[in-house]
Amino acid sequence: MSGSRRTFLRQVTGAALTAAATRTVLAADGPSCLTPGDGAKRVGLATVGIGGQGTGDTEAALKVPGVELVGVADVYDGRLVRAREVFCPGLVTTRDYRELLARKDVDAVIVATPDHWHAQVAIEAMEAGKDVYVEKPMVHAIEEGQKLVDAQKRTGRICQVGSQRVSSLVYRKAKQLLAAGAIGPLNLVEAWWVRNSAIGAWQYTIPADASPATVDWSRFLGSAPQRAFDATRLFRWRNYSDYGTGVAGDLFVHLFSGLHFVTGAVGPTRVMATGGLRHWKDGRDANDVLLGLFEYPKTAAHPEFTLSLKVDFADGAGESEGFRFVGPDGVLSIGWDGVTLQKQAKDAAPGYTIDTFPKSAQEAFLKDYKAKYPDAKSELRAVTEERFEKPDGYSDHDEHLANFIDAVRTRKPVVEDALFGFRAAGPALLCNKSAAERRPIDWNPETLKAV
Ligand SMILES: NC(=O)c1ccc[n+]([C@@H]2O[C@H](COP(=O)([O-])OP(=O)(O)OC[C@H]3O[C@@H](n4cnc5c(N)ncnc54)[C@H](O)[C@@H]3O)[C@@H](O)[C@H]2O)c1
Fold first, then answer.
1. How many Cα atoms within 13 Å fall on the side-chain side of residue 219?
2. What is the side-by-side order of every strand in the sheet holding 108-111?
């Protein structure tokens, strides 16, 4: 094990152990809405949208001592029933999230609804004096971004966006390596996310009892265009731009958050995207293939570099994900489990291309070359590889929620606040516009406006 890897593991073990110890307490006591606090100041929590991610976010928050889940809101009754099964029978459950915002015993709100509700619920919650953990992408439409940034400033509440890579020790390690010059000046970043399954392509299961009786349909629609009840649109909302933000808002946004955290970048100034609906022709209007290219000009934090992103939901070779930071001295690759640093040995000799020169010229060149570079080798230069792995059981998601609860208690600002969240969501959402309008779009990450 290299010295740096040992240090890396030492740094993370503490956090991983704390999470494990808290989990044990919960299991021993059975489902409880209050995580035993060890004297920690109680944080009353409510979750709006208790589907897949709302449940995961809430479970992660409840691993932090002193957190009490007061209530959950959802527009599908089945999810309210399930929340009482998963968390505790005494939970307040409601179809109307405003009932939770009105409660004095709620300090913090998780917003894990479909994207078209994020800004509205988050702003109303902050206006009601609550701190907010709002899922990514922070907003459904570019126009909502500044409003959320302003609301955070005006109310002075904590607002953390839910791209957990920003709290990940894996991304922290990549940030350290990049800052230490491990790959030299960054020139290119590429990332991809490919899937090849129905669930991967968002064809989620629709419950048999879904009907206008069990679903508050108009509350699901909210500000989206009015239409008759359609269970597919609720349970597979990601596939429709009225509620979701396509693969760019759903997946590219994580890559922007991770990239901005690692590099200190605030955003690209030019966005170009192209794609289409190639395979999942199930009535959706979201693309299943999308490529994006982005220009990041030089700033005090990083040199000028180019970013390329790809999502493909019909990749016949299976599912994979990758993130590569490329520089002349090495490549940093980030995966689920850790960071890999690859470096090619340096060779002072430049090599030569002399075959097409006259024989005498070749001989004269070689004589000089060998004198100048006596150690020059003809074989390819070796590539070395160093791995930095996260410890077993480590979860960046748990750490992200723990950071949120810590900020609620200490009032210390979070890294992934509304401004950070919009600087990730903005260029992601512009990809959809660029692909639809078949043109590059300029973005100003300082004024937060598309040009
Ligand atoms: N950070 C991550 O890694 C990650 C992973 C998955 C999802 N997400 C985000 O979490 C959010 C939810 O995604 P999901 O996969 O859990 O979807 P989901 O469909 O499983 O859950 C969304 C829930 O919101 C409910 N809902 C809809 N309108 C509502 C309203 N007005 N009030 C209250 N509840 C309402 C739905 O009934 C559903 O139960 C999305 O924004 C998504 O992008 C983040």
1. 19
2. 92-94, 67-73, 43-48, 108-111, 131-134, 159-161
Per DSSP (E only), the strands in 63-114 are 67-73, 92-94, 108-111
CA of 266 to the centre of ligand 1 (A): 27
Atom of ligand 1 nearest to the CA of 249: 43
Encoded tokens for 156? 């002075």
Cα–Cα distance, 298 to 295 (Å, whole number): 10
For residue 52, how far is its CA from the centre of ligand 1 (angstroms)?
7
Mutational pocket test of ligand 1: of 74, 215, 236, the residue with most ligand atoms within 8 Å of the beta carbon: 74
CATH domain 3-166 topology: Rossmann fold (3.40.50)
Give the per-residue pLDDT at 402: 98
Tokens representing 437 are 């309008």
Atom of ligand 1 nearest to the CA of 56: 16
- d(CA 225, CA 87) in angstroms, rounded, equals 34
Give me the pLDDT at residue 56, please: 98
Ligand 1 interacting residues, C-beta cut-off 6 A: 48-54, 73-76, 79, 97, 112-115, 117, 135-136, 162, 164, 219-220, 222, 237, 250
Ligand 1 pocket: which of 53, 96, 216 to mutate (most atoms within 8 A of CB) = 53
**pLDDT per residue over 195-254, tens digit each?**
999 999 999 999 999 999 999 999 999 999 999 999 999 999 999 999 999 999 999 999
Q: Which of 343, 384, 2 is nearest to 181 (CA)?
A: 343
Q: Which fold has domain 170-348+378-390+422-450?
A: Dihydrodipicolinate Reductase; domain 2 (3.30.360)
Over the range 411-449, which residues count as b (16 or more CB within 10 Å of their CB) and which as e?
A: eeebebbbbbbbbbbbbbbbbbebbeeeeebebebeebe
pLDDT of the residue at 12: 33
In this predicted model, what pLDDT tens digit does every residue of 144-194 receive, in sequence order? 999 999 999 999 999 999 999 999 999 999 999 999 999 999 999 999 999
On the question of a cis peptide bond just before residue 303, with omega within 30 degrees of 0, the verdict is: no
The crossing angle, in degrees rounded to 10, of helices 396-410 and 3-29 is 80
The angle at the Cα of 204, spanning 319 to 218, to the nearest 5 degrees, equals 140
Q: Which atom of ligand 1 is nearest to the CA of 250?
A: 43
**Residue the block writes with tokens 């019909």:** 314
Assess contact for 68 and 35: CB atoms under 8 A: yes
Domain boundaries, the chain: 3-166, 170-348+378-390+422-450
Closest CA to 294 of 327, 233, 253, 331: 253
